[in-house]
Each structure stands twice: as structure tokens, then as C-alpha cells.
Hints:
Number of domains: 2
Number of helices: 19
Order of helices and strands: HHHHHHHHHHHHHHHHHHH
Structural class: mainly alpha
Shape: globular
Strand content: under 5%
Largest sheet: none
Radius of gyration: 22 Å
Number of strands: 0
Amino acid sequence: MAAKQLRERVTEGVAWSMAEKIGSMLLTVAVRLVILRLLSPDILGCIAIPAAVVAVAMVIADSGFSQNLIRRDNPSPADYKSVFLFNMAVSTGLYVLLTAAAPAVARYYAIPEIAEVAPVFFLLLPVSSLCSVQNAIFTRQFRFALLSKVNFLSSLVSGLAAVGLALAGCGIWSLVGERLLAMAVRAVLLWRLSDWRPRGRGSVASLRDMAPFSVSLMLTDLISTFYMKLPQFFLGKLYPTATLGAFDQAVKLKDMPVTAATQSVQSVTFPALSEVRGDAPKFAESYRQVVLITAYVMFPAMLGLSAVAHDLFALLLSEKWMPTVPYFEVVCLAGLFYPVGMICYNVLKVMSRGPLIVRLEVVKKLLMTVVFAVTIPHSVMAVVWGLVVIAFGEMAVNFLATRRFTRFTTCRFLRTLLPVALVSGTMYLLVRLTACAVPGHLLLRLAAQLLVGAAAYVGLSVLFRLEAFGLLCDLMKKQAAR
């Protein structure tokens, strides 16, 4: 593919993916705010453990094969069929095992609701496996506009259903229905829109050929996902469910913009970088620009959310959720480092062999083990600060590992991030000063903070001629001219 054509497809893909992610995020935020007003922290704490279990189990069900299909040069029909059958078999087996184990888990945590919702909630596993191959095919084809529409529609349907169930007094079942319906709608739409069907015979040889890299990815993602959910597993035992609910929702609210930005960029750049990995200068510059744009968007977003958290929660949520504010203010700082770290990880997936990724995960998880061992027994706030330390450490380890494969040096990495960090930090201070200087009406103060934050960030970007600001302006002009 020609370089110009690749850039155009990446630009269009990022635009569509970002639009979908922002739309879905805003929809999800609206649904989440309604649900939080209707439900108590205790109920949200009850679903935290099953949700953490499903997150880990989904990684096992896929085992890295669908990502391998995206990376593979020319997957055969047997490759697709084999991955589909494998994913369905493993996910169905996990569903049976987890459902059978749910009563014991409910007794261990003294949360009987876990056993009640498990037979329905764990259906997420086989339903998600139904559409993993179709998703991989559309990603390979750069059909991000279609995927964006599917994801947004599934979020819309499930969000409306969740609000309706919550208003009807269904409690925890509104959360179960939201997750399951979103996955089911997505699966139905992808099957209707895709021409691929599991015809022919599967091949053990295909799985065996893909296994080394796929299993390495699976182990890496499994370790990463398990460790990210580790606080929920321990906090659910050590603290009341209301405390677990407050912590879990602080992390989830932080994850909404972080996940939206990270996935919108990664879903496009992974196949795109795979195509230019043989051109070292082009690859290094593409890598640098993705880091730059991501930091330029995420740094002010996360620092801004941290700065206005108290007034935002006070305006949109009831008093019962105010204990979440301190956790949210701190955990937003992890959002500064996690998206950049995931971009570096994407580069490793493109350029390195699987065993290196696994070894790096061992190093990172040793760091996480130390952090959690120190923070979990101490307090929930200590755990939150630990998540910030972990996010920074993961970014540093991932980036240093990519130095073996690219010309993007440490000095250029720091020069890329430092101007954005300084401008974002200045914006944060101005927003906090505005909160102190504008007493009185809550809505007026919040509006003043948002206005000052936006004006300060754009104004400083223009004043210091930040490269990222120019790149974003060029991208928007090109999209507007289409």
C-alpha cells in the first residue's frame, strides 16, 4: 500500500473510530450517571466481582487468536474457522465452570447476589466469542466506520434498556442486562453485516501454527487484565461492598475517556503499523506522532476531570456518591500514562516476538505485586495512588522495550511529551484557582472552570506553537474537505 493511501486510511479510520468512541462514551456516561443516581454503592459493589471475573475469562476464551488473525499476512478460511471453533469451545467451557463455581465465590465474599446473577451474566463469554472473527475481518479491512456504527448502536440499545430496568427497580439486574444486551446486539449486527460464515473444516494445524504468538499475547493480556482487576478481588474481601462500589466506579469513570481514546487509536494503528514495519524511519515517525496526538488529547482531559471532580460529582450525582470523589481525583492521574503505555505495547506487538512481551509482563507484574502488597492492606486511597505508580511504570517499561525496534529515542520521547505536560499542568492550576475564585452557585463555578480550562489550553497551544495542535488542525481540515 502506498504511504499516502495508508495515511489517508489511517486518518479516516481514526476519525471514525474516535467519533464512535466519543459518542459511545458520552452515551455510556449519561447511562452511568442515571444508574448511579438510582442505585446505591452497595449494588455497584456486588457486580464488581463478577465483572472482574468476566474480564479475565474473556482473555482466556480468545487466547490471542483473533489478534493474530489481524496481524497474519494472509489468513486462510481454515484459519478463520479454526479460531471460531476454538473460541466457542473455550468460552462455553468457561461459562459452565464459572457458573458452577459462583455459589462458592458468593459465600467467600458474603455477597449472595453473585450466585444469583452468574448464570445470566457469564453468558457474556459465549456471546462475545460469536463475533470475534467478524470483528477481526472488519479490522483487517479497515472498515472502522462500520464497526463504529455497530458499537454505537449496541451501546444505545443496551443503555436505554439499563435505564429502563433501573427505573423499574430491577437493581443489579439493570447492570447485568446492560452488559449482556450490548454484547448480544453487537454479535447480531456483525453476523448480519459480514459475509463470513464458519463453513468448511477447522484445522488443528492452523491453530498450531498460530499458537506460539497467540499464546504469548494471551498470557500477556491475561496477566495484565488479572492484575488490573486484582484490587477488586482483594477489596471485595477486606472492605464493605459500598467501599468496593465507590472504588470500582471511580476506576470505571476514569476508564471511559481513557478506553475511548486508547481503543480508537490502537484499533487503527495496529494494522497500519503492521504494514509499515519494514520502513524504519516511517515507522518511528508514525509511532512518535501517535504518542504526541494521544498525549495532547488525554493529558488535559484527565487533568481537567481531576480538577473539576468535586463540583462535577456534586452537580450530577447524589450525596451518597461523594465518597468516590477523592478516589476519582487521584486515579485520573493514571490516565495520563496508560494510553501512551498501551501505544508502546502496540508497537511491541507489531515488531517483537511473543516471548519478549511475556518477559516484559513478568517484570511489570513484579512491580505491580510489590505495589499492591504494600497498598491493599493499608487503605483504598493507597491502592488508588498505587494505580498511578503502576501506570507510570508500565509506560516506562513498554517504551524502553520498544527502543530495540525503532529509532524513536528516549530524548525524542521526552521532548514529545514535555511541552504537552507543561501546558496541561498550567491549565490544571488555572482551573483549580478558578474554583477558589468563583464562589456561589455550583453550576456557575463549574461552567467557569470548564471555560477557563478550554481557553487556557487552546491559548497556550497557540502561544507556544505546539506541534500537536497543528497536526490536529490539519487532520480536521482534511476531514472537513472530504
